[in-house]
Amino acid sequence: MNIIKYPKRSEWSIIVERPHLDVSQLNTTVQSVLEKIKNEGDAAVIEFESKFDHVNLQSLAVSKEEMDEAERLISDKLHHALVLAHHNIAKFHESQKFDGSKIETQPGVTCWQKSVPIQKVGLYIPGGTAPLFSTVLMLATPAKIAGCDEIVLCTPPNREGKVNPAILVAAKIAGVNKIYKAGGVQAIGAMAYGTESVPKVYKIFGPGNQYVMAAKQQVSLHDVAIDMPAGPSEVCVIADETSNPVFVAADLLSQAEHGTDSQVILITTSEDFLYKVNDEVKVQLEQLPRKEIASKALDNSKFVLVKDKEEAMELSNTYAPEHLILSTNDYDELSEKVINAGSVFLGQYACESAGDYASGTNHTLPTHGYALAYNGVNLDSYNRKVTFQHLTKEGVKNIGPAVEIMAENEQLIAHKNAMTVRLQALKNKAE
Amino acid sequence: MNIIKYPKRSEWSIIVERPHLDVSQLNTTVQSVLEKIKNEGDAAVIEFESKFDHVNLQSLAVSKEEMDEAERLISDKLHHALVLAHHNIAKFHESQKFDGSKIETQPGVTCWQKSVPIQKVGLYIPGGTAPLFSTVLMLATPAKIAGCDEIVLCTPPNREGKVNPAILVAAKIAGVNKIYKAGGVQAIGAMAYGTESVPKVYKIFGPGNQYVMAAKQQVSLHDVAIDMPAGPSEVCVIADETSNPVFVAADLLSQAEHGTDSQVILITTSEDFLYKVNDEVKVQLEQLPRKEIASKALDNSKFVLVKDKEEAMELSNTYAPEHLILSTNDYDELSEKVINAGSVFLGQYACESAGDYASGTNHTLPTHGYALAYNGVNLDSYNRKVTFQHLTKEGVKNIGPAVEIMAENEQLIAHKNAMTVRLQALKNKAE
Can you tell me which residues bind substrate (chains A, B) (predicted)? Predict the structure, then answer.
């Protein structure tokens, strides 16, 4: 833990610094895998699954039998939890539906936006030790609500060729149509280009390791859209003497256990509170199975003492955290000052885990300072707002001359002419 | 003109094909320019302006005197046109303001989204023969409405070191704070990294040539967000015997004059109409100053005869045009079938020029098939939707157990513990 007391503003740039992430050195490897998937389709996916995931697959699609089996394999308790989480995520994302109203910008000129779902989306769910079934709910639920026709999910199988049953059940609850056994770069390639089994999609969502990130970046240059750039997960907690040190310590640790590169920042106006949290973190850390990971992440974490709340909020806005917990009693006032953050948790009881799993907000959020320019996944992520316009004869008369003069000054005479032929036709009719 | 009658579906992929755009061969040049801007700031920008734009600049910022001079240099007629266009663009984009309502997903669990402007945005306006002042209005007006603090604009000067006056007046009308003389890759680099004069921004908007596109792609991998990927401009017109061949020909030509790589597609159910447009295009083409460019673009254009409107709409949705003109009498019915398009123009009088300049919709739109996954620039492009959540004690009780079981199954025990310490505290209080 690095304890920093009353840093000068000139020192802030060091506090908010992120590890340098450059996946470009992976680009050659990633490119060759993508190229092979593009050219050889399923056969290449199966080959890379054997090489990287040590599994021999006959086919990529998860079968109906495997789906049914998954339902039997998970506990009722977990099933109920998934249904509750799905309900809340669905309720919040449904409330984000957009209905554009028609705007008459001039008499006879009407413009509007209409939300139209992206037809085909691809969701990537990493494998590894912890099966991220919560991410299935987060990515598939809004896709279904948006009305995407085809929701494709790729996730790596284990060495027996099986997908974690909780991932399959979450996919079923959320309404995923098509699930394939493929991980890493080969999964991204399969969804970007399409193979005999895996449909080509128009946008790819989901987390992953550095190879997956590099692959998403590469395919996004030409072939498909992606949800957002990615980096290690992070939390910033703003606390004072009204905050609960046990809760705050637990929140910091929940971030720290993600990975050794996780970012954990506490900003507080109370020195006494800072040391209380510091002690409490040590106590709680001992109980954690992922103690080693968490403690490495904590080595890079920062506990910052600042003079007042104003400064705390400014430092947080400069950092632009993925998760921001305002654990003070005056969270309402502070929340008005949030400029740069992915998701904000207000008060004692809104822990990050609530939003990670079940409150209803999305947990796919901008990390690594990307909150300066990006927001997390929401219903908009699965839609495009297409603009429409209609002009009456009166509309043409009202804006036609302005269009003519502007087009003429941009030396685009055919643009001008498209308006002139209409104005002329109206004039001829009137005569 | 390529006339294609009743193509089979298997031939559609050829009709909707776009020229292969690969800017990666420019990457080495672009990277070295970006690198130099990053390291040397203003001095490098001035050097590249001398090299590429053949101008010797003392300073990059446009002065107050230059702004005042610009006002004197443009005609009253153009000034009025800019004000009218700005009014309509502002009215439409103001109507896109978002006010997120609070949603109680479970008793005691409240979630909402809040729209927060991106603090610093950069707008790039290309130079060249035609000064794109209309793009200044399209990019700066929503930035101002969103409430972005810093709106930076870069545009290349002429050989005398002057910026086109209409660009400066449009910038002033739309509320741009800071205008700099810089073009091409050096402008993108200056806004991505910041120099002594040019502030670093968080998102870059605007069109440009292949070098600008490549530069935007490169900086978007690490440093800033960008509006969207780009390609040549394109229009698809759907017409029948109720359409006006003179109007349709003018619309096709207004697209064709953009560049030799512009894409122009007419889809019609009437063979008679197709030939009428074909004749009319030849007549109108003769009058155009950019006749040579337009006629090269027309060489690659396609006039497609299909059996019915259903098929016309399906072909258009497969093509995913930037601009779609439904010039038939039954445009209302057809508009319901639009899935993939950037901006849609309905009826006889809604020509593309209307939206390019003055109706109020944005003209920065997804080209090159990107309409499958992207929409054009709108107010959302300048905002992030930050999520907020608040939990009461009741809220913790309602979702806490589900969070615990899900976290446990994802083997993230610190995540579970963040909820457990809160549930425990509530239990202790109750006892």
Answer: 233, 255, 258, 323, 356, 410, 415
